[in-house]
Amino acid sequence: MYLLILVLPLIGSLVSGFGGRWLGSLGASVFSALCVLTAALISLGAFYEIGFSGTTCHISLAPWIESGLLQVSWGFLFDSIAVTMLVVITLVSFLVHIYSVKYMETDPHRPRFMAYLEVFTFFMLVLVTSDNLMQMFVGWEGVGLASYLLINFWYTRLSANQSAIKALVVNRVGDLGLSLGILVIFSIFNSLDYAIIFSSTPLVESHVFSFFGMKIHAITLAAFFIFVGAVGKSAQLGLHTWLPDAMEGPTPVSALIHAATMVTAGVFLILRFSPLIEFSPNILFILVLFGSLTAFFAAMTGTFQNDLKKVIAYSTCSQLGYMVFSCGMSCYDVSLFHLVNHAFFKALLFLCAGSVIHAVSNEQDMRRMGSLKAVLPLTYSLMLIGSFALAGFPFLAGFYSKDIILEMTQALTYSNLNTTYVSFACWLGGVSVIFTSFYSFRLIYLTFLNSSNLSRISFSSVHESSFLMSFPLVILGIGSIFVGYSLSDLFIGPGSDFWQTSIFTLPSHSLLIEAEWLPKHIKWLPFLLSVVGILLASAVNLIPSTSSLANAYPTLTSFFAFLINKKWYWDVFYNRFVVLPVLRFGYVVSFKLLDRGFIELSGPYGFSKFISLWSRILSTLQTGQLTHYVFYIVLGLFFFLSVAVFNFYQTKFHSHLLTIFFIFFYFV
Asked: Strands 208-211, 57-67: parallel, antiparallel or unpaired by DSSP?
């Protein structure tokens, strides 16, 4: 039963991909959706059996690699983390499949699209259910490949080509970090199996590497490379640039990437290696720092975006920062809880955005929309629910997870572990709440409530989506309302043993009790900050006089507007100081100097030129005159005798006689 969860998406991808021309566009879509639906139902059964019954399922299929100490087998581990991810992945993937049946109905390559979605789902399932690092890396790379294929699905568009290549290249950095982490872990534990690594970590806590006279803590080094892998895949600050550009793919792809696959892989990696990361305080500090900076940076950048999908993409980047932030505070269960809640309302937001784009003839600029509330009432209602959940409005999904993360930061600030970086991260997390609610309701105003900027013809053709597109939205809307409340006690409730040994937290790092006894005004603070953001968005869109505030400080306003609107110039920095120098080196040094220069001149090109040149030189010696030939014969005989005499002269016998003979021969 457990293996069917992985096998069914693989079968669906193969059948819909290779047999699409026989099944037809609709047949391939229905078959692939049925495969994922069956996998989702089995995942719910596995969730009940593993999570509620307190068991763990470990399946070992066959040996894979056997080379000395390296023993790797095909094995699958179904524990609390794995089954939770399985439910999220398969359920969101099924809803995206149903949505895509209608959304992609006019595309002639719909079977190929469905096959790519199934491949994406399959490799993500392999990633979360592996019981060793090597097999997990197969799923890790497969997810990157599937994301490239889906982002570049409309491969005739130059922007799609560029975005897909950018996503692939940027993720190579994180993949290299994870590869080095696998090598370091194998050098420490002589194994890649999770069971051996996690059970042996306390025994090697003091193990160090010697490198050029320096002592490097082994666990910290391994955890650092794991963190680098998570930064690339989960789009944390520095390697985040690929995520907004990934919007060039079809909207269902964006929903699947941002809600259930790809970006959640990095957070899952940190969660899976919590028994290792817990023994490295330096890495926990880095997680808090990078997570809070990412949340703040992405929230502020999303405020100035005008593309409907890019606003939601930056919100994903910001929420991933909260998840990493939570892992840095050793609140891994809260991070996973936020991941589950985020999957529902983020998939809802993206699919609602797809419904809007589908209705307004593929227009994505929010400034050209407006007044869509009357013609798209269902989409407006559900997008409003998703925006409230994203902003952390009480009793919706985001409220139960994001607010507890902020409460954990306050608890850490109030505890005796208070440090400067914790206070700094706490402030960044709080300010990010304001910007999150601001851009969420700026999106609502520009898209649905403000005056319309659509042409009369375009506005008259706007209509609500069909049942196949509306049904996934309703299901995700219900999840965005009730999932947080339903799972809060199970996932993060005091005394809950749902996670068992799949998540490890040192007792000294636990903050749950401190967060429960915070002052009431501290607990109300996230909600108040969200309200401030909503009121600011309302003031900017409803009160024209608020624009005078920007005119009061034109220089400062222009500076910050350009800085944030240009994404803090991260792309400019990379292009100018990384991409262009590498391209220049590749063309001038590697290509012109080495490939076209040294290698070709010393290789076949240079050899052929040498032969032709010397053949022409030697051919000029053939003049046909007898005197020239006699001269050549005498000259050759002279050189021959000179060499012979010189060699004989080196023996230092008869030196005077040889000298006289040489002079005589020379004059003759």
From this structure: unpaired
